[in-house]
Design goal:
210 residues; mainly beta; 2 helices; 63% strand; globular
Length: 210
């Protein structure tokens, strides 16, 4: 059962450690820590991706900034309660980690496979330049009756295809995790720059229910 569940959410990331470890939470005496990794895009920009990692997998007292690592795990979400409402917080939950000399040429530095269910009607729109985009929210099952809610963004032909999805449709997605900064208005005079994470979809298919 749980192996099948793990197969529906697989992430591999390679990149440069860009922060120190910060404490997140503890489960049954095992401490979990957050650390950011910079992953290069094909263009010259980078995505800054947060990892959640157990103190049993790595020495969290050390500063690895500037070192290259490869991790595999799952893209997970949880709701953090702030400002009278819940905010969806996303991170890569690390199952395996290894240090590498540098990013391997031609390797997939940022790869995700998700299988789940559409849990909100897709939002289809066009940019001012006519580029087609569709936003999806995918519920991906986890063991013990939990689910992760993963925002996904489709482009072009995939966006047109995705715009016809109904809530509850069973889909499989291949893509990459990307980060995007946006400005959140806190009050009339205050704003704050925050980072959103989503899956940029490269391949999308509907799965027939067996």
């Amino acid at each position: 059962m749980s192996d099948k569940i793990i197969e529906n959410n697989q992430v591999t990331i390679m990149g440069e450690v860009a922060s120190k470890f910060t404490y997140s939470h503890e489960v049954f005496g095992e401490g979990f820590y957050m650390v950011d990794v910079l992953v290069k895009r094909l263009s010259s920009s980078e995505d800054r991706i947060p990892l959640m990692i157990s103190e049993r997998l790595i020495d969290v007292t050390k500063d690895y900034t500037g070192e290259f690592i490869m991790v595999s795990g799952q893209f997970r979400s949880y709701n953090r309660h702030e400002e009278q409402k819940n905010r969806l917080v996303l991170s890569v939950f690390v199952r395996e980690v290894e240090f590498i000399d540098e990013e391997l040429d031609g390797a997939k530095t940022n790869h995700i496979l998700l299988e789940g269910y559409i849990c909100k009607k897709p939002i289809y729109r066009k940019t001012p330049l006519g580029r087609e985009i569709a936003d999806l929210l995918l519920a991906v099952n986890r063991p013990y009756g939990k689910s992760d809610y993963i925002p996904c963004i489709c482009w072009g032909r995939n966006a047109r295809f995705a715009s016809g999805f109904e809530v509850g449709e069973h889909v499989q997605i291949l893509g990459r995790i990307q980060s995007r900064d946006y400005v959140k208005k806190l009050s009339e005079t205050e704003t704050e720059t925050r980072t959103a994470y989503e899956v940029s979809v490269s391949k999308l298919e509907c799965l027939e229910e067996s």
